[in-house]
Predict the 3D structure of the following.
Amino acid sequence: MNLTSRMTRRVGVAAVAACAAIAVPAVALAAPGSSAAPASSAAPAAAAARAALPGCSRTDLTVWVGVPADGSAGAFHYQLELSNISHHACTLFGYPGVSATGAGAKQLGSAAIRNGSHPAAVVTLVPGATSHVELQVTDVSVIPSSSCHPVQADGLRVYPPNDRRSEVVPLRFEACSKRGPKFLSVTATIGGTGIPGYSF
């Protein structure tokens, strides 16, 4: 089965805030990614897992937004999903690279900073399994306009952990066009979808 046919196997979950459509790969809800214990042995465990299995590359994955934004004071929260669409198991460890994009997929503002609320742990993804990161988007209206230059973003550029190839995921939200303000943050990769009712 080719990548295009895999991408069509999706079921709708809900509408993302700001009218962005969400599509959930059906295969992504079938099997959660499993996380190794994120204790002080995380680095040796990561090295051992990588020796046993290849790291997930951009071509092994599809990236999608899991649920509508969960708003809180001054921010919106999303689950950003990474699903294994390859025919082999692979691993993820650490943080993805994430930035807002505008017209022509051009980067807007500064890239996401790292949120250390979830310790980095090796996540093994068998074919069809999903992991996620928690993405926070700051309400840029709280940032001085002169330092932000707010504009509407229409996507996110996502680099899987330890990969230099990226995918642009549709998502509309207000972003800073000027570098400097930190309005995006992401956690390390977490096993499972993180979707209510589908968390593992």
